[in-house]
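Q: I have 317 residues here and want to know how they pack in 3D. Can you give me a structure?
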Amino acid sequence: MSTTNHTAGHSHVFLGDGHARNERKVWAVIALTVAMMGIEIVAGTVYGSMALVADGLHMSTHAAAMLIAGLAYGFARRHAQNPRFTFGTGKLGDLAAFASAVILALIALFIAYESALRLASPVPISFGQAIGVAVGGLVVNLASAWLLKDDHHGHGHHGHDGHDHNGAAGHAGGRDNNLRAAYLHVLADAMTSMLAIAALALGSLYGWIWLDPAMGIVGALVIARWSWGLVRDAGAVLLDYVPEGEDLPNEIREAIETGGDRITDLHVWQVGPGHHAAIVSIATERPLPLSAYRAKLAHIHDLSHLTVEVDAGRVAA
């Protein structure tokens, strides 16, 4: 006999605990970036400074990438109760993060290409003006990074019984990859500004024009590494990959496999930041009420959606 437990009418809202807060942060940074971008482009056009115009256009690429994050937060929030999203919209942020990571990789490729061209064919640099632009961009990016830094560690998690559970769950799924993507964009911009300031300062002192594009290549390599890390982590969530450090499957087995009960099939996947779903198939000669199996797993904080299937009358070999 096979019996499945699914509670009718239960919620499928699996947004992260800081969803609303992170959405506000991203839109604040977008506003700050767009304002600085507009000032640089207008000032560069009025005063004939291509350095200002170029930096403003460069900021526009990061603004566009962060716009993906902002729109993803809004869409996930508005459609969180839409039944057509079978397991909610919690993973939409990971989809947006994956797209942002691809854009980040393209930015790294563009910086490396431009830097290689400058190494092959050096051009005169207006050091004073370029340093001023880099310092202004650095201030804006540091302020943006401060806004986006996720220092909220004390999350309260929701158990599959619908109640709040507070405490450290120790699972890897609580990270908001959408916020992380926006943070990496402004961090990448801040790093390129710092490298540019160092290269321009040394170049103005010693005439090392080659140092500016060389620093550009170094920055491109670092940004590409960040992009790969984001692609790997967001892609893993989208493909329902269970990370090596994720102990949730073992916790479920330890809780269920007592008194002759054995798990014959187990599926665990992330449905949102700090939220996991599981399908547990149990073989047993002495079946317990379904509520008893759910009670055994109630202490697992990140387990937000649970389906239990009991195959009575046999024990797994």
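Q: Anything worth noting?
A: The helical segments are 19-47, 50-78, 92-120, 127-148, 177-206, 211-238, 248-256, 290-296. The chain has eight helices and six strands.
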